[in-house]
Amino acid sequence: MSAPLLKVEHLAKCFGGIVATDDLSLAVAPGELYAIIGPNGAGKTTLISQLSGQLKPDSGRIAFAGADITTLPMYKRSQRGLARSFQITSLFLDLSVLDNVALAVQAHAGHSFRFWRDARREPELREPARAALERAGLSARADRPASLLSHGEHRQLELAMALAGSPRLLLLDEPMAGLGPEESARMVGMLRALKGDVTILLVEHDMEAVFALADRITVLVYGRAIASGAPADIRANAAVREAYLGEQEAAHV
After folding, report:
1. What is the pTM (predicted TM-score) of this model?
2. According to the CATH classification, is domain 1-81+171-253 in 3.20.20.70?
């Protein structure tokens, strides 16, 4: 097996008396789609926030491409090839779809934020923006105001913005949140198309999507990993079924 692109060792994070990340270790291989699942309050978003640099861990180590990034700020992690999407989209709704992604290209490149006119005109920004829109299935919407997109298309736009910097690792936090069946199926198709080209760490509640996409899965409960392995192993794990999957399956009865 090749050296991991992302390696987390003994990560810990507490908020007062609440343990959000509890001695967590994991390794994500290049090209892998690695899913993190668990019930509400399991610490999934807290983990993503530590990996992206939004939160500082209390202890432990995060390595990316062999380098220790535990104390690096978000923008330096972005420059090294980490990109994050959020549970709640944050878009410039008055700008076009293409302009939103052009601004993301510019931000990933570390340019000044005196950017409004340049981002609309410069081919070195617009060409990679169009390529990102193509990968996210939004080329036909490039010139539309972002405000006119559906919720599912907003999710696709957020994915395009995350892809704008040609990341080596995508940290995706609930990309299927709020999507209907058709929109979820479209997002699954796009993520499947990215597999192998971009390493993905996926936090997601949609178990159908997780089991359709993931190469490996870690299950968190109260910040601690109770199981890690291939999807078939996770589905068959009695502790996982008791802690999480049984609750998910009961909700669909």
Report:
1. 0.88
2. no
